[in-house]
Design brief:
Blueprint: E1 17-18, H1 30-44, H2 50-57, H3 61-68, H4 74-94, H5 103-118, H6 129-144, H7 147-173, H8 179-185, H9 192-203, H10 209-212, H11 215-235, H12 250-258, H13 262-288, H14 293-315, H15 317-320, E2 339-340, H16 354-361
C-alpha cells in the first residue's frame, strides 16, 4: 500500500444516491456461490500469480451476482458469477491502457468471443487459461439455457463488446464524445442484457418475445442500464483516473462539454442520472399495472439490478482501493455512501437529449 494515496478528482466523498428501491437483498446461498466460483477460477488457473488473483477477487463478482439475483436456482447464479469473474478479467485487459489494446484488438477479440459463444468448437481464440475457462462457460451455458435464452445472452454480450469497442475507438482517437453520443452508446459497455438474462434463467421465467422486446420494456431496460452505468462511472472513477487521454465516462464527458473540473461535473452527472431514475420508476409502475406474475418478477429484477449494483460497488475493493493507488486491494475497503430521499432535480420532463427522448415517449399521461 502506498503511504498516502492521491486524492480523488471527484472530491472527498461520493454524492448521495437517489434509489427508492429495496436495498441490501442478497441470495441466501451467496457464500456457497462465492466459494464454488473461486474454486472454479483456481481450477482453470485464470490468474497467473497471487497478485493478479487478489485483484481478480477484488471485483467481488460473486457479491454483484448474488445482489442483482437475490433468489432463484443456485446453479444458474453460480454460472452467472463465473461469467462475471471471467468478463471482469477481459474488462481489465480492455482498460489496461496498454499500447497493444487498441480498437483493432478489442474488436478482433470481441468478434471471436461472440462466435465462440455461438459455436464453442470453432477454435477461434488462442490456447490458454482464459480460453479454456471460456469454453467451459460456453458449454455449460448451452446446456442450461433454452435457444431463446441463449440468443438473449449473445445479444447482451454483443452490447457489452460493442460498447467497449466504441469506447476504445474514442480513446484511440484521443477524443471525448459529446453527451448525446455518450448516453446513446457508452452504457452499452455495462452489459445490462448480459446480466438480466440470468435473472430470468435463475427464476425460471420465460417472458414472451413480444413482451420482452416491447417498446416500453425496452426503454425501461435501457433506463436501468443508464442508471447503473452512471453509478459505475462514479464508483470506478478513481480506478481509471491515471489514463491519458481521460477515460470516456459520464463525468469526463460532462467536464469536457462544460469546460469544468471532474468535481464540478459530478452534480451535472447526478442530475441527469436522477432524471433517468425518476423516469425508470414511473415507467416501471406503469408496466406493473396490468402485468402477470412473470412480468412483475422481471420488473422487480430490474430494481434489484439498479439497487444491487450500488450495494456491490460500495463494498468492492476493486473500486474502493483501486490498483492505480495500491499494490494490493484492501480487503475491508468501503465507500461511505449516503442515500437521498428525493431526486436531485425538479420536474419530470425529459432532458434535451435526442438519444433519450424515446424513453419518455413510452410514459402514458
Amino acid at each position: 500500500m502506498t503511504a498516502s494515496p492521491r486524492p480523488s478528482l471527484l472530491g472527498t466523498r461520493l454524492p448521495s444516491f437517489y434509489c427508492p428501491l429495496e436495498r441490501d437483498l442478497v441470495h441466501p446461498e451467496a457464500k456457497q456461490v462465492e466459494s464454488r466460483a473461486v474454486e472454479w477460477l483456481d481450477a482453470f488457473g485464470l490468474y497467473p500469480d497471487a497478485v493478479e488473483r487478489a485483484w481478480g477477487l477484488a471485483t467481488h463478482s460473486a457479491d454483484f451476482s448474488c445482489r442483482i439475483i437475490p433468489d432463484g436456482k443456485v446453479e444458474a447464479v453460480l454460472l452467472f458469477t463465473e461469467w462475471n469473474y471471467w468478463a471482469n478479467a477481459v474488462d481489465d485487459w480492455q482498460d489496461s491502457g496498454s499500447d497493444e489494446v487498441g480498437t483493432r484488438a478489442v474488436v478482433e477479440h470481441g468478434a471471436r468471443l461472440l462466435r465462440t459463444i455461438e459455436d464453442p468448437g470453432a477454435s477461434l481464440l488462442p490456447e490458454g487459461p482464459m480460453t479454456r475457462a471460456l469454453v467451459d462457460l460456453v458449454n455449460r451455458t448451452h446446456a442450461m439455457l433454452t435457444p431463446y435464452e441463449l440468443r438473449r445472452f449473445v445479444e447482451g454480450t454483443r452490447d457489452w463488446l460493442l460498447g467497449a469497442a466504441w469506447r476504445a475507438a474514442q480513446a484511440e482517437a484521443g477524443t471525448m464524445p459529446g453527451l448525446n453520443d455518450f448516453v446513446a452508446m457508452g452504457p452499452l459497455a455495462n452489459g445490462t442484457r448480459f446480466s438480466l438474462t440470468w435473472s430470468d434463467v435463475a427464476r425460471g421465467d420465460r417472458l414472451p418475445a413480444d413482451v420482452l422486446c416491447s417498446p416500453a420494456l425496452t426503454a425501461l431496460t435501457d433506463a436501468a442500464g443508464f442508471v447503473v452505468s452512471a453509478d459505475n462511472d462514479l464508483f470506478s472513477y478513481d480506478k481509471d483516473d491515471h489514463l491519458e487521454p481521460r477515460e470516456v465516462n459520464l463525468v469526463n464527458v460532462l467536464a469536457h462539454q462544460e469546460n469544468c473540473s471532474p468535481a464540478e461535473a459530478v452534480p451535472l452527472a447526478v442530475a441527469l442520472r436522477d432524471r433517468v431514475m425518476v423516469l425508470f420508476l414511473r415507467l416501471r409502475a406503469q408496466l406493473e399495472d396490468d402485468a402477470d406474475g412473470a412480468l412483475r418478477r422481471h420488473l422487480a429484477a430490474l430494481g434489484h439490478y439498479v439497487a444491487g449494483s450500488i450495494a456491490w460497488q460500495s463494498r468492492a475493493p476493486r473500486y474502493a482501493s483501486p490498483r492505480n493507488r495500491y499494490e494490493l486491494p484492501l480487503a475491508e475497503a468501503r465507500f461511505a455512501i449516503r442515500f437521498a430521499g428525493t431526486p436531485g432535480i425538479a420536474g419530470i420532463e425529459p432532458p434535451d437529449l435526442p438519444a433519450l427522448a424515446y424513453w419518455w415517449q413510452q410514459v402514458r399521461g
